[in-house]
Amino acid sequence: MRVFGRFFGWFLVAIALIALGRDLVAIAAGESFRLAPLGEVWFKLHSASLNMLQAGVERRLAPEIWDSVLAPALQWPSVAIFAVPGILLVLLCRDWQGHKRRFR
Predict the structure, then answer these.
(1) Exposure check for the chain: N or C terminus, fewer CB within 10 A?
(2) Any residues with CB less than 8 A from the CB of 29 and at least 6 apart, and which?
(3) 31 Cβ neighbours under 8 A, 6+ residues apart
Protein backbone atom coordinates (compact mmCIF):
# COMPACT_ATOMS: atom_id res chain seq x y z
CA MET A 1 0.00 0.00 0.00
CA ARG A 2 2.89 2.36 0.72
CA VAL A 3 4.31 1.77 -2.72
CA PHE A 4 1.02 2.76 -4.34
CA GLY A 5 0.72 5.85 -2.12
CA ARG A 6 4.27 6.91 -2.90
CA PHE A 7 3.77 6.30 -6.63
CA PHE A 8 0.50 8.26 -6.66
CA GLY A 9 2.16 11.06 -4.66
CA TRP A 10 4.99 11.35 -7.18
CA PHE A 11 2.41 11.26 -9.98
CA LEU A 12 0.61 14.24 -8.43
CA VAL A 13 3.91 16.07 -7.96
CA ALA A 14 4.72 15.47 -11.64
CA ILE A 15 1.34 16.91 -12.67
CA ALA A 16 2.03 19.95 -10.44
CA LEU A 17 5.41 20.43 -12.12
CA ILE A 18 3.77 20.23 -15.55
CA ALA A 19 1.22 22.85 -14.46
CA LEU A 20 4.02 25.06 -13.16
CA GLY A 21 5.90 24.60 -16.43
CA ARG A 22 2.79 25.69 -18.30
CA ASP A 23 2.61 28.84 -16.20
CA LEU A 24 6.31 29.55 -16.78
CA VAL A 25 5.92 29.12 -20.54
CA ALA A 26 3.08 31.65 -20.42
CA ILE A 27 5.44 34.09 -18.70
CA ALA A 28 8.08 33.50 -21.38
CA ALA A 29 5.43 34.23 -24.02
CA GLY A 30 4.92 37.69 -22.55
CA GLU A 31 1.98 37.21 -20.22
CA SER A 32 2.08 38.47 -16.65
CA PHE A 33 2.89 36.03 -13.86
CA ARG A 34 -0.11 34.19 -12.47
CA LEU A 35 -0.79 30.64 -11.47
CA ALA A 36 -3.60 29.30 -13.63
CA PRO A 37 -6.65 28.15 -11.68
CA LEU A 38 -7.69 24.51 -11.95
CA GLY A 39 -11.05 25.37 -13.51
CA GLU A 40 -9.40 27.30 -16.34
CA VAL A 41 -6.94 24.52 -17.10
CA TRP A 42 -9.67 21.88 -16.95
CA PHE A 43 -11.92 23.96 -19.23
CA LYS A 44 -9.13 24.30 -21.80
CA LEU A 45 -8.34 20.57 -21.69
CA HIS A 46 -11.88 19.14 -21.76
CA SER A 47 -14.76 21.52 -21.17
CA ALA A 48 -17.45 18.87 -21.69
CA SER A 49 -16.33 16.84 -18.67
CA LEU A 50 -16.30 19.94 -16.48
CA ASN A 51 -19.83 20.79 -17.57
CA MET A 52 -20.94 17.19 -16.97
CA LEU A 53 -19.46 17.26 -13.47
CA GLN A 54 -21.31 20.46 -12.67
CA ALA A 55 -24.61 19.14 -14.01
CA GLY A 56 -24.20 15.81 -12.21
CA VAL A 57 -23.39 17.38 -8.85
CA GLU A 58 -26.20 19.90 -9.09
CA ARG A 59 -28.82 17.34 -10.19
CA ARG A 60 -27.87 14.25 -8.24
CA LEU A 61 -26.31 15.63 -5.05
CA ALA A 62 -27.13 19.26 -4.26
CA PRO A 63 -26.52 22.60 -5.95
CA GLU A 64 -25.05 23.90 -2.68
CA ILE A 65 -22.16 21.44 -2.97
CA TRP A 66 -21.22 22.89 -6.34
CA ASP A 67 -21.67 26.50 -5.24
CA SER A 68 -19.96 26.33 -1.87
CA VAL A 69 -17.32 23.59 -2.28
CA LEU A 70 -16.40 22.70 -5.85
CA ALA A 71 -16.68 26.07 -7.62
CA PRO A 72 -14.35 27.82 -5.13
CA ALA A 73 -11.90 24.89 -5.31
CA LEU A 74 -11.77 25.25 -9.10
CA GLN A 75 -10.50 28.80 -8.60
CA TRP A 76 -7.45 27.66 -6.63
CA PRO A 77 -4.10 27.42 -8.45
CA SER A 78 -3.71 24.09 -10.22
CA VAL A 79 -0.14 23.80 -8.97
CA ALA A 80 -1.31 23.85 -5.35
CA ILE A 81 -4.20 21.46 -5.98
CA PHE A 82 -1.77 18.76 -7.15
CA ALA A 83 1.43 19.61 -5.25
CA VAL A 84 0.08 19.70 -1.70
CA PRO A 85 -1.57 16.24 -1.66
CA GLY A 86 1.29 14.82 -3.73
CA ILE A 87 3.97 15.98 -1.30
CA LEU A 88 1.89 14.80 1.67
CA LEU A 89 1.47 11.34 0.13
CA VAL A 90 5.19 11.06 -0.65
CA LEU A 91 6.09 12.02 2.91
CA LEU A 92 3.46 9.87 4.61
CA CYS A 93 4.24 6.77 2.53
CA ARG A 94 8.01 6.85 2.85
CA ASP A 95 10.07 4.33 4.76
CA TRP A 96 10.56 5.92 8.19
CA GLN A 97 12.75 3.20 9.71
CA GLY A 98 15.93 4.70 8.33
CA HIS A 99 17.55 1.54 6.97
CA LYS A 100 18.66 1.41 3.38
CA ARG A 101 17.33 -1.23 1.07
CA ARG A 102 19.80 -3.45 -0.66
CA PHE A 103 19.35 -4.15 -4.32
CA ARG A 104 20.58 -7.43 -5.67
Answers:
(1) C
(2) none
(3) none
Q: Are 78 and 18 in contact (CB under 8 A)?
A: no
Can you name the residues that pair with 77 across neighbouring β-strands? 37
pLDDT tens digits for range 1-49: 888 999 999 999 999 999 999 999 988 988 888 899 999 999 999 999 9
pTM score, whole prediction? 0.79
43: exposed, middle or buried (Cβ count in 10 Å: 0-12, 13-18, 19+): middle
DSSP state string for 15-43: HHHHHHHHHHHHHHTTPPP-PPBHHHHHH
Distance CA 31, CA 17 (A): 19
